[in-house]
User: Which sequence fits this backbone?
């Protein structure tokens, strides 16, 4: 039996290199061999209370970027999360088996809750984790963390389990959510003594989990970090971003260890350039002859070689509204067929039956 693959991206803005290497480029690779299902997670995007017009525009632009990057609606089921109402019902049902403690402990919740409250991060020395947790549930602030943010992992588990997916290609930052999904699946199966949900795993491409760094010297590339290279960045803008990336003063002695910002540039180079180019600059770093300006120029051109064909296709695809609508209508039909079957089984198991 073919693996059922499922993955999605939140509609919070244009796609960046992190989304591309962590997710989208992998989606394209496996379309021919698996039963593939890729969606736009607009309900997940609601957790940060976006502007409604913007949310709607983002769904469209991500769909266009999916297609421009090579997702093929004849091979993959491509759909919008909110077109599958069964997901919302299953979210309610599954939440009855999810603990608020385990949700509060997820790294992404703490991170997003901190941002929502305008708090610093413990890594930056702004208070320890426990203190921040107390502030999240505390009442001494008129800002609040919405419940949707807390139950985000339930919703993500539902996306996966409602399709009975077995493989979930994601970047490193989503692996904790996937672990929770496995736990929820196991718990449901064992509570009711059934074998309804398979336990999904990351799609194994043979390498380490992907974490694309930002250009600001630390951490990962992320929309809310303001450190992104977008697939649709104009070449001028893209070159400027890369040339401005944080570096250091350069190696003073042969074979010195690399600082984080420079190591990050090498990570990006490894993703986008040929092995020859990478080893040329590694050697130059080792013998102290490296000029970061040269490395950045090369990096910018190699990134452009990846993004340019995508950027050039996006505008045409976006202009064809009826095509976009057709793709997601057809996708929703297929995704709903499986979702409604799973929901029927789940209701029956839980005792929600017609009289
Ligand atoms: P999201 O929208 O934050 O990111 C979408 C995908 O891009 C990957 N990604 C990265 N990978 C490597 N390096 C980075 N800097 C980087 N930034 C983003 C993410 O790992 C992800 O694969 N909760 C999910 C969306 C989701 C989902 C699902 C995914 C909802 N339901 C079901 C899979 C299955 C999210 O917020 O991803």
Assistant:
């Amino acid at each position: 039996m073919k693996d059922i693959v499922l993955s999605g991206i939140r509609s919070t803005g244009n796609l960046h290199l992190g989304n591309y290497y962590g997710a989208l480029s992998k989606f394209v690779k496996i379309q021919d061999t698996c039963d593939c299902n890729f969606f736009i997670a607009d309900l997940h995007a609601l957790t940060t209370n976006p502007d409604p017009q913007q949310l709607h525009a983002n769904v469209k632009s991500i769909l266009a970027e999916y297609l421009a990057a090579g997702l093929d609606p004849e091979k993959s089921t491509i759909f919008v999360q909110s077109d599958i109402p069964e997901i919302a019902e299953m979210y309610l049902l599954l939440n009855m088996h999810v603990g608020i403690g385990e949700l509060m402990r997820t790294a992404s919740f703490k991170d997003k809750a901190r941002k929502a409250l305008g708090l610093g991060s413990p890594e930056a020395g702004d208070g320890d984790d426990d203190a921040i947790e107390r502030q999240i549930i505390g009442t001494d602030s008129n800002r609040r963390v919405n419940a949707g943010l807390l139950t985000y992992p339930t919703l993500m588990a539902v996306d996966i389990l409602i399709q009975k997916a077995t493989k979930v290609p994601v970047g490193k930052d989503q692996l904790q959510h996937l672990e929770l999904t496995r736990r929820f699946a196991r718990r449901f199966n064992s509570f009711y003594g059934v074998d309804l949900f398979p336990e999904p795993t990351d799609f194994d491409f043979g390498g380490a989990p992907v974490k694309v760094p930002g250009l600001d010297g630390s951490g990962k590339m992320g929309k809310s970090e303001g450190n992104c290279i977008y697939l649709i960045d104009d070449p001028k803008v893209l070159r400027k971003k890369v040339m401005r990336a944080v570096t250091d003063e350069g190696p003073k002695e042969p074979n010195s260890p690399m600082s984080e910002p420079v190591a990050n540039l090498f990570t990006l180079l490894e993703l986008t350039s040929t092995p020859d180019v990478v080893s040329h600059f590694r050697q130059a770093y080792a013998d102290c002859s490296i000029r970061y300006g040269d490395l950045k120029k090369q990096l910018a051109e190699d990134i452009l070689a990846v993004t340019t064909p995508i950027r050039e296709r996006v505008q045409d695809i976006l202009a064809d509204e009826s095509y976009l609508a057709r793709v997601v209508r057809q996708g929703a039909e297929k995704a709903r067929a499986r979702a409604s079957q799973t929901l029927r089984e789940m209701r029956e198991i839980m005792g929600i039956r017609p009289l």
User: Anything to note?
Assistant: Residues 6-10, 18-19, 21-23, 41, 44, 156, 159-160, 168, 170-174, 177, 210-212, 220-222 surround tryptophanyl-5'AMP (CB under 6 Å). The longest strand covers residues 4-10.
